[in-house]
Amino acid sequence: MTVNSFPELRGQRNSVRSETDIQGVVEQRIWHSMEEGQFENLPGKGKPLNLNTNPHADPAEDTLYRILSKNGCAPEWVQLNKDIRSQVSEW
Any idea where the DnaJ homologue subfamily C member 28 conserved domain is (predicted)? Predict the structure, then answer.
């Protein structure tokens, strides 16, 4: 991202922008847009989200995970995560 993406941050001494600075600007822009009613006429407003698929995931990978889940299996990294969390809670 460039300074031009966030004019609110121009003029700051340090040319490196922290993640906190950018998050603050983004939150301000969202609140301002909400106050102006820019989110009132979005398609699907008031309807539940479809969480059956991940629109950002690779379709083949998403299908694979769905098949594994329906058959009571989990990817190795998910099972390892569960095992680690279980051992940590035991300690």
Answer: 25-88
